[in-house]
UniProtKB/TrEMBL annotation:
The keyword Cytoplasm does not apply. It comes from the Bacteria. Residues 27-339 form the Glycoside hydrolase 35 catalytic domain. Belongs to the glycosyl hydrolase 35 family. The lineage of its organism: Bacteria, Bacillati, Actinomycetota, Actinomycetes, Streptosporangiales. The keyword RNA-binding does not apply. GO terms for molecular function: hydrolase activity, acting on glycosyl bonds. Pfam families: BetaGal_ABD_1, BetaGal_gal-bd, Glyco_hydro_35. This is Glycoside hydrolase family 35 protein. Its EC number is 3.2.1.-.
Amino acid sequence: MIELPGTSPAPTTTSEGAALTWRGRRLYRHGVPHSILSGGLHYFRVHPDLWRDRIRRLADLGLNTVDTYVAWNFHQPREDEAPRFDGWRDVERFIGMVGEEGLDVVVRPGPYICAEWSNGGLPSWLTGRDVAIRSSDPAFTVAVGRWFDELVPRIAALQAAEGGPVVAVQVENEFGSYGDDQAYLGWNRAALTSRGIRELLFTADGPTELMLDGGALPGTLTAVTLGSHPDAARRLLSARRPDEPFVVAEFWNGWFDHWGERHHVRGAGSVVPALEGIVADGGSVSIYMAHGGSNFGLWAGANEHEGRLRPTVTSYDSDAPVAEDGTLTAKFFAVREVLGARGPVRMPTTIPTLPAARVPLVHRAGLLAGLRAVPAPVMTGPRPASFERLGLDAGMVLHTARPRIPAGEHRLVLTDVRDRALVFGDGAFLGVADADHPELPIHGTGAVVRLEVLVENLGRVNYGPGIGRHKGLLGPVLVDRRIVQGWDSTPIALQEWSTTELTHAVTAAPESARGGAVSADVGFAVAAVRVDAPADTFLALPGSSRGLVWVNGFLLGRYWEIGPQVTLYCPAPLLRAGENSVTVLELERLGGILELRDRPELGPPEEYVEEFG
């Protein structure tokens, strides 16, 4: 249980009128002893029609604050378009809604956010340049400054000093895990204050000397991020910043998942002692995540380990107290007790779902025919164009060349493919190429071959030195030792497709009409789902291998038989009474069934173990 300090010297502050101040290792809110009891909830991972529901669930958890990142690339995916703050991107509406429910808000504007989000929130149009990201390089800070010109005044207008709910703003994000450019950190802080931020500023880093040396700023509150060992972190901070309160900006009570691995969980028996250690003696905490939500579309990031890409799954459930679909878990009630919440839980424990059903999945168009049917500009050159040259953030690129291949067996080598490629010769499937398997056999007859390489971006790296790495067919394609030159590169902007592009794809002419092979194993398929009234459901594709799912034109996300995630969460607001259209793009093997399930299946569990602490 939390015990706030009784009496203490009056707080001091360096910002006139700030809601949160600190002195003598204590935090105060308008002069009253206070602990931040916060939870991570990202507006960009929750359907806007469900924002208020999830905010109320966090209030029922016993929290007094919600914290959210701001994902730059979500607001401005293209440089030539102004940042958007409408609809799903209306962060001001989200912040205001939190305030309406009686909670404070902590904003983490980055510009880098990590968050297992594509490119750590940085736009690929920026990282695709020759720029030193997250540094005092003017090529970076000028671009960030323009973004902050748009974003920060919106946050400033919602500060507590202006009658709003924003009580704290983070400077950058875990910078000590990345670099040591103190000039850049100082620039970031000044960029916030010069644009009107008056509330509490803080940095957040892992609890090690190395990370704090790189990420902490003199005169700015230092917070830590951790999953365990709060006592050791408290001692470390006390030695470095003896007058500051103990603030854990992220307490990892669960973890995210990668494709091909197991589903991470963290039991209450592990969470409760660590949380008790954090909030003891007036400590402050943000539970990461309190509600994780989903990586809808193609926004999931990726990590690198020993040179191998580890793409993040579509679900961001994170074994949070409030599950991906809003269900209140056993961990919810265990955490609620630690936080000292009183009174009844207002929100229902579970969410209504559609009854389980099986719906036929009807193949409509072959893979290449469907993709070719969607109009897109073509870039021609001696080498394949990268995603960045094409101005493409996510999706696929179809590269076409016409080499003459001598008679006999040869090696086709894709020297640097990021991340996965399907290779075709005269319409026939030759195989899959990736970093581990860059070589395929190809048979020549002495004639020209229409060589097609469909490259898929599986997720941009969101953490570590690999942030900003390019995507696509980056190295030369070889036939034996000879480089294939002369390529047409066509961007396939799947994340930007509307129902118009989907209609073009599913009504494409058969492959045979274009000189290719007809195959019902891959390509576009549709299912009609009729419901009496919208409710949540969980979609599964038994027998299918790997691809994407749209519901009524909305790109739900990626599925992959390697797991761990089996079902895709489809929230009720995406459905309508009557008939609903589900479109599937299957890349390797199409099953014939779409299943609607009444509960999620996120895969075989594995207990989360913190990497440092």
